[in-house]
Amino acid sequence: MTLGVLGVYLAMVLAIGVLANRRFRGTGEDYFVATRSIGPFVLLMSLFGTHMTAFSILGASGESYRIGVGVFSLMASSSAVVVPLVFFFLGTRLWAIGKRNGYLTQVQFFRDRYGSDALGLLLFVVLVTLVVPYLLIGVMGGGITLTQITGGQVPSWVGGLVISIVVLTYVTSGGLRGTAWVNTFQTLVFMVLGAVTLVVIVRQLGGVGTALSRVAEAHPDLMTRATHIPPAKLVSYTLIPLSAGMFPHLFMHWLSAKRLESFRLPILAYPLCIAAVWVPSVLLGVFGHLDFPGLVGPQANSVLIQMIHLHAPEVLAGLLGAGVFAAVMSSLDSQVLAISNMFSQDIVRHYGFKDRMDEKTQVMAGRLFVVAIVLVTYLLSLVAKATIFGLAVWSFTGFASLVPLAVAAVYWKRSTKAGAFAAVLTTAVLWGWFFADGWGVPGYSVGGTGLLPVAVIFTASAIAMVVVSLVTAPPDKTTLERFFPTERRSP
Amino acid sequence: MAAQNPPDPNRAPLRRLAYAVLLVFLLVRYDLWAFDLSTPILGLPWALGFHLAYTLTAIAVLAFLVRSAWPSHLDPEADVPTRGDSAIADPATNDLEASR
Questions:
Q1: What is the distance between the alpha carbons of residues A87 and A411, in angstroms, rounded to a whole number?
Q2: Which residues of B touch A283 (CB under 8 A)?
Q3: Contact list, A100 vs chain B (CB under 8 Å)
Q4: CB contact (8 A) between residue B66 and residue A259
Q5: Which of A198, A384, A417, A490 is the most exposed place for a label (fewest CB within 10 A)?
Q6: Which has the closest alpha carbon to A138: A66, A49, A63?
């Protein structure tokens, strides 16, 4: 029965994606940014659904299981403010620049802004590399969900495979319009079902107060942050949600906005959406100790699904499992489409293949590239032994550390090509160094201080951008006039 | 590229106030003095209850920011008033005087 409900849900998702294909106008702009026609509500659902992933559902509950309710203060309260501010200060400006110049990808913007093909190519490699761990947590989340929700009847490799195939199918048929429609549907599904999950399980545990008291008796350390969260960690976590400023998939959704005004609703409603998803995830993760004590490391990723399986009847378990699937797929689809977009625009078209391929063939090349990336990700998911939360934070660290580049490109006229190179290379080198040093180390921080690597990499990236820009020749007037047009003032 | 309108200079003080409020609000999140506090707030342990309240309060702060510092000048489709433009209402306040 559970599998039947999940099957029906996946069929509905596919149907929406295929339906969106009927609106496809056969152009790259329509496929990749829905001809910039997305209104406020679908934009909110797309941005939020894309941003919330297995990280926010399975990762957050798993991390709460490990370190307690303080997880909310690390990621949720910071994301609730920082992400809307990223939309406000970067999203609106990049949307305006993208609309004026007809951009479809970040690389197109940065390449033109700094007049460097090499910078564009470097960014392409760095961005795709950083997206892979992000894709990986989605595929892992799909596998975990299907395995746990069926009581182990379906192995995890099947869940990851099913999610990958479904996402690839509706993304490649519906493009961004299909992805936005499906995201809207899926975001509503996982927000509503997240609340239902909390109510159903908490009622069986005797209410929130009773459940919290029972956990506090056995694990008082999970009710405060004194034991598991150093203060420096709370401070440096503020930087992690800045990653939204460089996510290729969020950039793509920004460009799809119909008007500047479309950004108002996402900015204002984001904190509420964050609370709606993170409160159930964090509470249920902590409550997991009541039913499933002793889970260690990556085992805790599945605590939420195990609780659904234990407490919910079959049909409801299928629906709640579908909610988790929704959260996973609503991110995976946009990431897949963004990579496809980048390959089509930044490699195929930019490097001259456009003369040898018609537009549909270029889109097809993007689809084939993304199939290859998803295949690699899927194979990695079969051997990955990481926590979803930890894996995501490494990915977010890289993206967040590139944000000084985006801020300088949009706001600082004096920033130069050399400065941009310095910022990207600093990020790439330091991220690689910290990743090699800290991968697989639970609770890794810089020198054991609690400070996350993102604090060091972000600062170094910003300093590199500023210092190198100031010691190199300023950009030419043509570039400045293009990206900082003279403001029209009446006499 | 076509020239763009500058931000409305009449709204500069309100915009600065919004940025100041935002800065203070960002600092409020660092409740470092409450790391070992388990006092309930909103019926939840402090580490969750305080930050849930903070998250919900963010809606008001963001609303003030959007109201006071919305970058209307970026909208290529909007005819945003500039200094000297008359009889065009300020889109945020619908106030004819504000745009003069």
A1: 15
A2: 48
A3: 1-2, 76
A4: no
A5: A490
A6: A49
